[in-house]
Amino acid sequence: MRSLRARVLLSAAAVLTLFVLLTALALERAVRDAVIAAREERLQAQIFLLMAVGEEDQGGLVFPNALAEPRLTLPNSGLYAEVLSALGDPVWRSPSALGLETPAPLPLPPGQRRFARLSAPDGKQYLVLAFGVTWATGAVPQDYSFVVAEEAAAAEREVVQFRTSLATWLGAMTLLMLVALVLVLRWGLRPLRQVTEELATIESGRQAQIIGRYPREIETLTDRLNALLAHERARQRRLDNTLGDLAHSLKTPLAVMQGALEEGEIARSTQGPLQEQLERMHHIVDYQLQRARTSGQGSMTLAPPVPVGAVAKRLIASLEKVHRDKGVAVAMRIDDGLLFRGVEGDLMEMLGNLLENAFKWCHGQIRLESRREPSQWSLCIEDDGPGIPEGQVSRLLERGARADESTPGYGIGLAVVREISAAYGGRLEIDRSTLGGARVRLSLPR
């Protein structure tokens, strides 16, 4: 089942149905116990009434014809009474029990009381209460057992009536709860429908990012989607700019070759410049294609966080092998918990360019240091080289400074770092280091 709404609705309906069924069973059991307890109290009251009107005679106990409970005088009324002797012989039976085979419990010792559900020989169920007493009004005290029985069908009818009423009301309440659940679910899932609508609007080109306000549980998702969209747009701009740079960079070498070819034959004097321009063009193509591949390695802003310190150590180890003749001393103080939330290739591209420049221009000392701030983290890379003249910093960070890749120096790497950091909402700053060379500060949002 791929519908979140249907899954939640069916799950909630199943839980609600199970809860209602268990509640109904518990209530029915409680009502059944209450009905039986009430019947027991009523039978006990009948015994006390019989004891109040009973009188001892020479033949045993006698009771008046007009009893307080009219049902005891009506045949087949459903309520029956009898008095047993100490031996279990009937001493007296109510008129309602004449001609009937009611269950006869064993006589009880004085003071004992027993309530049970018994079956008569004809299969009828009775609720029977027996109570043992000592009758001391005569010359010799006598032990009797007062027994009152009521057909269990009457109690069952009360339980059935309650069950019917309970089923009706609980069924109605269940339907109302399901309707309320559907409405609440519709209201609760409304932010997800809004996100879907906004994404459709973005796909149609009428909107650039998600702008709605959403609950905290969804806000993280929308923020990441906005970051993903921004990163995709930045990556596309980088790719477009790369292709533009490639076309622009090839224009001059191609023009030189075209001029040589238009002479009709390649003169010896032009072979050198032509070979140089061909090599230059080859270098430009390789570099720009490599940048395009790097830009397209993946644009997942939802990728797992990358530890900055581990990446920096790998790059430093590689550069130390390349520049082993310099004997560069690298002092690195990077927080172990510093994480880059983006594509690892982008982080390696930025740190690789900055560290390569530092290794290339330093005299023998490089310092890396990370700093944490409430909204961002920064990484400072300093060297003891000649540094970058202040007037050239802004030019080196502009795209136009990358036209001449064949010239060694800071320019093209810094422009690449600037573009990638800008795609993540960061910035690149350059000034003088206390070591005497350049200090490059890369700042990115946390």
From TrEMBL:
Enzyme Commission designation: 2.7.13.3
Record-linked InterPro entries: HAMP_dom (IPR003660), HATPase_C_sf (IPR036890), HATPase_dom (IPR003594), His_kinase_dom (IPR005467), HisK_dim/P_dom (IPR003661), HisK_dim/P_sf (IPR036097), PhoQ/CarS-like_HATPase (IPR058619), Sig_transdc_His_kin-like_C (IPR004358)
Reaction(s) catalysed (UniProt annotation): ATP + protein L-histidine = ADP + protein N-phospho-L-histidine
Molecular function, one GO term: phosphorelay sensor kinase activity
CDD domains given in the database record: HATPase_PhoQ-like, HisKA
Uppermost EC category: transferase
Entry keyword set: ATP-binding, Kinase, Membrane, Nucleotide-binding, Phosphoprotein, Transferase, Transmembrane, Transmembrane helix, Two-component regulatory system
Family annotation (Pfam families): HATPase_c
UniProt-annotated location(s): Membrane
HAMP domain segment(s): 186-237
A Gene Ontology cellular-component term: plasma membrane
Gene3D superfamilies linked: 1.10.287.130, Histidine kinase-like ATPase, C-terminal domain
All copies of domain Histidine kinase, residue ranges: 245-446
Transmembrane segments: 166-185
Stated name of the protein: histidine kinase
